[in-house]
């Protein structure tokens, strides 16, 4: 018979969560999911419920959270689940949060770009970020809602307006791009996907998604035409799912997987685990674009160090050049939106 300690070790080593998403099994993190009843929100909340590092899971949405929370609360894992519904309950949901994830917002339909979601989603992120700035200003904010290239600047401006902005704590979640590139590369090369790590930098839309295949670990080489096809597939992978779902939504399950991995890494960083690196779309001085995704060393205060662009090959340099104008446009659009209606609106945000 296994001793108690041996049994705990066995459970930890086989636990799906600690193997896939997080190195920390002991902590006391409170995590809120805003948009928890949605296509991403539900599976993401399930994956967070099985993260042993999360002891409080606060689920917020404008509808159906009571049922989702009741359902999840029956899972025999440590996190205590609480549901919050409607703006009047947002403050209670957010108070004491270490991490807030925001998948709230409408998804694309076939034929739409992510920027086409701006008119609906910008206001959702503005209001949720403003609430975070008031009720959990020190929390790590993980924005999933599209268009990420604009919603991250919006969230940042709301924190600035409340005087609590810390650029190291606001992230646009681009992990799905990395998950996809790891998967496609491992399939193309017959590698064990768990050992493949290919950074994806830039932003999260079309040509702003820049896979850095030359920095893949383990190193991989493709003929130029295959390299270009692979890059195009990674850039269009969201549309691939959108079209396969034929009008019923965009990526939800793979996004939940990617979001749970990112939140797990942020919590590992908060818990002082060494060497936690994830790419994310953050305030950045690496290029001419004010926000840019690169590999980041995560720690107790969010971004400990921006690991930068690293060594690039010509094809990747060209992809960055092509992405910068679009990124700048998306970022400015978000910043202007956040300040529309300000009495003393300033151009220098
Ligand atoms: N960053 C990425 O890689 C990535 C990947 C996939 C999807 N997304 C984006 O994530 C968002 C959500 O996608 P989905 O498929 O889950 O959509 P969905 O429509 O299934 O779910 C959205 C949820 O948000 C809720 N919601 C709407 N307004 C809200 C508000 N003001 N406060 C709280 N909740 C609110 C809705 O009630 C719904 O439950 C979309 O914008 C989508 O484009 C991003
Ligand atoms: O493609 C979308 O609209 C959703 C998401 O950004 C994705 O990459 O799957």
Account of the protein in words:
The longest helix is centred in the last third of the chain and has 26 residues, at 314-339. Helix 3 (41-49) crosses helix 11 (253-270), helix 6 (118-135) packs parallel to helix 7 (148-161) and helix 8 (175-189) packs antiparallel against helix 9. The chain has helices at residues 4-14, 16-20, 41-49, 65-73, 90-94, 118-135, 148-161, 175-189, 224-235, 237-244, 253-270, 314-339; strands at residues 29-34, 54-61, 80-85, 99-102, 140-143, 170-172, 200-202, 209-211, 276-283, 291-299, 302-306. The strands form three sheets. The chain has a six-stranded parallel sheet, with helices on both faces. Strands 9-10-11 form a three-stranded antiparallel sheet. A two-stranded antiparallel sheet has the order 7-8. 43% of the residues lie in helices and 17% in strands. (2S)-2-hydroxybutanedioic acid binds at residues 107-108, 114, 146, 176, 204, 238, 241-242, 250-251. InterPro entries: L-lactate/malate_DH, Lactate/malate_DH_C, Lactate/malate_DH_N, Lactate_DH/Glyco_Ohase_4_C, Malate_DH_AS, Malate_DH_type1, NAD(P)-bd_dom_sf. GO terms for molecular function: L-malate dehydrogenase (NAD+) activity. Keywords: NAD, Oxidoreductase, Tricarboxylic acid cycle.
